[in-house]
Amino acid sequence: MAGTETVLRLQGITKTFPGVRALDDVSLDFARGEVHGLVGENGAGKSTLMKILSGVYQSDAGRIFLNGARVSFKNPHEAQLAGISIIFQEFSLIRGFDVADNVFLNREPTRGLGHMDKRLARERTRKLLSEIGFDLDVTRRIEELSVVQQQVVEIVKALSFTASVLIMDEPSAALTDKELRKLFEIIRTLKARGVTVIYISHMLDEIFQIADRVTVLKDGKVVGTRTIPELTKDDLVRMMVGRTIEDYFPDLGKSHGPVVLEVQDLARAGKLSHISFDLHAGEILGIAGMVGSGRNFLARCILGLEPWDAGLVRIKGTVRFCRSFREAMDAGFGYVTDDRKAMGILGRMTITENLTIASLRDYLAFGFLRRSRENADARRQVDQLRIRSTGIAQPVETLSGGNQQKVLISRWLLRNPEILVISEPTRGIDVGAKAEIYRIMRELAAAGKAILMISSELTEVIGMSDRIIVMRSGAIEGIIDQHDAKASEEQIMSLAVGHEWSFAGGGTS
Amino acid sequence: MTGLSRVKRLSEPHLLVWLILAVLIIFCAAASPLFLQTDNLGNVFLTQPVGLGLAALGQAFVVISGGIDLSVGSVISLLSSLAAGLYRAQPGLSPVVVALFLVALGAAAGAINGLIVVGLRVTPFMATLATMSLFQGAVLFYAPRTIGGIPKSYRFISDGLIAGVPMSIIIFVVVIALCLYLLRMNRLGKHIYAVGSDPYVSQISGIPVRRVRFLSYLICGVLVGIASAYMASRLGGGGPKVGVGYELDTITAVVIGGVSLAGGSGSLLGTFAGVLIIGVFYNIMNLLSVNAYLQIVLKGVVLIAAVSFYSKRRV
User: Fold this and answer.
1) Among B2, B185, B201, beta carbon nearest to A94
2) How far, in Å, CA of A252 to CA of A466, rounded?
3) Percent of chain B with pLDDT over 90
4) How remote is the C-alpha of A114 from its chain's centroid?
């Protein structure tokens, strides 16, 4: 490992978003010239932590020390000036500008009165590129570059600030193996120059290849920091998941009805390949996988929200091509999205209006809405699902997250769908309300509905699903039937992060 | 390496627009024998495009920064009327003073637009729709009818010659050269492109996004002020109808020239080609005696065609 001199120290960093404690008293040290891996499940708080470090967010509590001095950043530009740069998954580059213009954006070398010295910017960019041993025409525009080239531009931009800390958020997500090797080479060069690289990834193989130390985050807390040679992958995964399934999950379904949804060889270039599965009436089928594994994209394809290239979707034995969500609704789908606020509730409208919005046709008489029938149905739903409110006229945005979620589920129940697709059913909901949502979902399944549940929370997937589909890179890595024995989080994680690595021997790879 | 690629890049975005202009000219020459006559050519390429061209350059700055300015036309009407009114009250005023006064007023109008957009956070479309009404109302209140009486000394601005070169050309060449410099070689221009292209990235790069937006409206105002000073000279007066249609014509020119209404891309030379295309289009309509109202209909069609053409190319 590199030197032990601490370049960056985090102390008691805490950050709360409405309803969620994203980071809880996180303290961490980063040494000069080390590559420090940061891992954790989806939602463990990795990205939030890095956004605080780079000035995108401000922490509610806690302190950051850079080279021993306390710092706080109002925006990423300030962080960069201080020597902390972050490379997001979504690059922060102006696509129409050339390489040199991007590297020196807002720090354009000038010769008085804003007259730009383009030659100087290009010269400096070339020099930085040659320092990390990468060949790139600095006059090419970003939109003409490959992903790894764009990444290099970000790295060079960071170096131009004389970066002492460089944060990379899932840098390998869109890279080929060859490009990844090139990236690792560059990271080693940076390391040799004394730059500290914080490498966020859920590809554990990469962490073992490139990192000196690794820190595991879980539920917004630090589980621990370990030195790589002392650690096996098994240990690491155990640190990431290690928790028992809580007992607030209802029992699994006893018997399933006929197949209602059958997906055969569904494919979309670059996104999904050979997706085949079926879903029975009365069943809850969970889909697990990391962010970007295609979980939600698959759902959107089936629901007519994204086109696909090949494959068949049968609903109750009949082939259906839903080209719009409207058609999917008519085919018997209901869809509770993962983003309640943006793609779910109509915040300022009442509970009644939110409930009936997807089935207004049923409330029409001679072209007029029958308010009394709407209200009657709304009251019934509020009672049945125990939606806690001051009345059916309450604006939905003033309800708690759990009750908003119940409203969204009820919205579809009014249409009596055969298949309910629910993405992240309990995101941002407190524990008590979670249990209620789980109970409702199980009751719906018992009443014969088929439920496709997409979730980032492994405990939820294991606790709720009759069967679990694990996806990785747009393909199904495995389907686990939970009736014989419950899956372990390790089992799902190993499928989700890479099949080349097996737990069978418990070995060290 | 850079020599060739620089030439290529300079020409690439608006090469197509100049090509369209060339095709249009050939068509016009074939359609009407009057088109190629020296008087007509001088009119189409030297006199007519200057006013619209100056205003369109201003519009281009605003659109590239991600905004839009619908008040261009009414500002021109207002300022030309003020020039004429000023001369009516004080016939002896120096043309330089009057011209500078108009440019300052144009800058003030641009500053008002910019402050409403940046300070009050009103969307550019609504802000300038409102100021369009404001300025148009002001000119009608001040002078409901056309005012003449701009003296000969002032009319040197549009009609004069220096060493045999028309003043209008000198003004336009100087202004477009300055604008080209500002957008291409100056830091501010880089930031205008950056803000129009991606405000979020600009912001996290520390670019003062709001200031840049304000400055693009201010620059637009200055250019519209110069356009007004020129128009008052060319027409020998001012009035509420002088700038009518300019908001639409400048936007059309900008769009034909390849400036994306989404901001962040496009060039001034393309915009200039767009101005010439519009000029030639009007001219051939007149030469072919197309009904004046029908011309307005056709202008709408051209705008739709241009916008849809570019939106297809983007995807």
Assistant:
1) B201
2) 6
3) 79
4) 42
**Complex ipTM value:** 0.85
- Residue A130, classified by CB atoms within 10 Å of its CB into exposed (0-12), middle (13-18) or buried (19+), is exposed
Token duo for residue A426 = 């309990």
Is B211 within 8 Å of chain A by CB?
A: no
B207 touches chain A (CB under 8 A): yes
CB atoms closer than 10 angstroms to residue A273: 18
Q: Which two tokens stand for residue A333?
A: 């789908």
CB contacts of B66 in chain A (<8 Å) are none
> The dihedral of CA B165, B167, B172, B173: what is its sign?
positive
Q: Report the C-alpha gap between A226 and A391 in whole angstroms.
A: 53
Neighboring chain A residues of B265 at a CB cutoff of 8 Å: 96
Token pair for residue A134?
Answer: 């990468």
Q: Is the pTM of this model over 0.90?
A: no
Contact flag A75-B186 (C-beta cutoff 8 Å):
no
The C-alpha atoms of residue B40 and residue B45 are separated, in whole angstroms, by 9
Mean pLDDT (10-residue bins), chain A, 509 residues: 78 83 91 93 80 91 94 91 89 92 93 91 94 91 90 91 89 79 92 94 85 91 91 81 60 85 94 94 94 90 92 92 92 92 90 93 91 94 90 89 91 94 85 82 93 90 94 92 86 77 35
Chain A interface, best mutation among B205, B219, B260, B267, by max A CB count within 10 A? B205
Long-range CB contact pairs, B165-168, < 8 A, 24+: B166/B46, B166/B47, B168/B46, B168/B47, B168/B50, B168/B230, B168/B234
CA angle A371, A376, A382 (to 5 degrees): 120
Contact A77 B191 (CB under 8 A): no
DSSP state of B147: B
Look up residue A133 and give its two tokens.
Answer: 């041993």
Contacts of A247 by beta carbon, 8 Å cutoff, 6+ apart: none
Residues of A with CB under 8 A from a CB of B: 56, 75-78, 92-97, 101, 105-106, 108, 110, 113-116, 118, 137, 139
Closest in A92, A94, A106 to B197, CB measured: A94
Tokens describing residue B218: 């201010």
CB contact under 8 A, A139 and B5: yes
The residue among A84, A93, A116 with the most chain B CBs within 10 A of its CB, best to mutate, is: A116
Are A260 and A279 in contact, with CB atoms under 8 Å apart? yes
CB A275 within 8 Å of CB A475? yes
Structure-token match 């036309």, residue found: B73
pLDDT, one tens digit per residue, over A177-230 is: 788 888 999 999 999 999 999 999 877 888 999 999 999 998 889 999 999 988
Between B191, B197, B204, which is nearest A92 by CB? Answer: B204
Backbone angles phi, psi at B276, to 5 degrees: -65, -40
Say which residues have a Cβ less than 8 Å from residue B120's Cβ, sequence separation at least 6.
B127
What residues in A contact B186, CB-CB < 8 Å?
Answer: 113-116
Which residues share a beta bridge with A277?
A: A263
Beta strand residue intervals within A247-386, DSSP E: 259-268, 272-280, 284-288, 310-315, 318-319, 333-336, 364-365, 368-369
Cβ-nearest to A94 among B1, B186, B194: B194
Question: B314 in contact with A at a CB cutoff of 8 Å?
Answer: no
CB neighbourhood size of B148 (10 A): 12
Hey, which residues does A334 pair with through a beta bridge? Answer: A420
| CB-based contact, B191 to chain A, within 8 Å | yes
